Amino acid sequence: MSDTGRQSLSDKAGAKLKPDSEKSTTEHVGDMFKGKADSAGSTAQPQSEKSYTQQVGDAVSGNSNNDESSLAQKAKNAVGMGNN
Description:
Elements (H helix, E strand, L loop, with lengths): L8 H9 L7 H20 L7 H10 L9 H8 L6
Pfam families: HSP9_HSP12 (PF04119)
InterPro entries: HSP9_HSP12 (IPR007250)
């Protein structure tokens, strides 16, 4: 479940799991706009007002408002594949 105005975790996962080569131009543009809107919503919503599932989703995707790297980016950094 997602907070009001935020992209659900299942929608995020579905967009990430479908290969770009199988997406139409409309899907690419939609994913981009949804991602930017969700990121803006994450930044605007105080951490204390987020549901637990939204906090977890933000931590995994990097959509948090506390300037921390996502868990995926931290894993890449740990194995030397990150850009930091």
